[in-house]
Amino acid sequence: NTGNIKHPPVTVIGLGMMGSALAHALLKQGYQTTVWNRTADKADKLAAQGAVVAGTVAEAISASPLVIICVLDYRVVSEILEQAGDTVHGRAIVNLTNGTPAQAHQTAAWASEQGVEYLDGGIMAVPQMIGSPEALLLYSGSQKIFDAYGPALESFGSARYLGPNPGLAPLHDLALLSAMYGMFGGFFHAVAMIRSAQLQAETFTSLVVPWLQAMSASLPHLAQAVDAGEHQTKVSSLHINQTGFVHFIDACRDLGISTELMTPIQELINRGVAEGYGTDGLSRLVELLRKPEL
Ligand code: FVH
């Protein structure tokens, strides 16, 4: 069954929180959707919405030209694909499981040996966002899949193709998550400071949200400095940051706040100054991260 070119049948393997949201989005857009999950009863709700429940991985993969996989990790992806046997030949496989660029390359190499088109992907959304344009999905690998199945992929959210190198989607996914964890880490540290004075975290958001928005406006300038390799600054040198950081760490110790999220940043700034970059701006830290301390 090849359906029609606009609405081909689609298989979704993995019905955890994310896989279920993906299958639900396809059903909502009218796709004939076959599903498989290790724990079979997770398919019940989708079956009630019209999904076809496959009894085996091979049966699920045979049902559709387009197969979406979203499971715990790449180890599970490999185990599942092993169970598929020859049914994978000629299929388009889109793997939305979180992993590393190296794992994406390994899976793409396996796919190429099997005669399978392979598109890797990264989901920049939580399950509740799937199906809305706010959900961003990054793709890399087979452009043939991205072009042929664009409308099906857009059922999940905004779709962005990053290029034929399959590692690019996980690379960008993990880089964006790094930026997110940095922001959350900074916010949690700030809130710990505020709470030490028995103040409300929520009240503090009226200051911290616009502050972070104003600071994020400087990211394109920092990025330009990194791309040009020109880190001299008239704004805020590593040296001045080094001096200010001591007050910051001292204040945290006085307040009884752990500095464990902040000392790595202080150590990086100190290394930059020690290596002779005291007059450079904070963009220099990117170069230091790319040359880890021996
Ligand atoms: N949930 C989220 O917010 C994030 C958003 C960004 C993307 N991630 C990634 O999506 C992958 C799946 O995440 P999930 O939220 O669906 O995770 P779970 O609800 O824990 O479901 C895990 C599924 O994996 C199946 N599974 C686990 N181990 C095995 C195995 N050995 N053999 C077969 N399947 C396995 C599990 O099956 P079951 O436990 O229900 O039988 C679920 O289908 C993930 O890469 C996130 O990083 C989500």
Automatic annotation (TrEMBL):
| Gene3D superfamilies documented for this protein | N-(1-d-carboxylethyl)-l-norvaline Dehydrogenase, domain 2, NAD(P)-binding Rossmann-like Domain
Q: Where is each 6-phosphogluconate dehydrogenase NADP-binding domain found?
A: 10-159
What Pfam families does its record include? Answer: NAD_binding_2 (PF03446), RedAm-like_C (PF21761)
Keywords associated with the record:
Oxidoreductase
According to the entry, every stretch annotated as the NADPH-dependent reductive aminase-like C-terminal domain falls at 166-291
Q: Which GO terms describe its molecular function?
A: oxidoreductase activity
State which Enzyme Commission number(s) the record gives.
1.1.-.-
Task: Please name the top-level EC class of this enzyme.
Answer: oxidoreductase
The record's listing under SUPFAM superfamilies reads:
NAD(P)-binding Rossmann-fold domains
Q: Per the similarity annotation, which family is this?
A: Belongs to the HIBADH-related family.
Q: Which PANTHER family does the record associate with it?
A: CYTOKINE-LIKE NUCLEAR FACTOR N-PAC, OXIDOREDUCTASE GLYR1-RELATED
* This protein's name: NAD(P)-dependent oxidoreductase
| Native source organism of the sequence | Paenibacillus enshidis
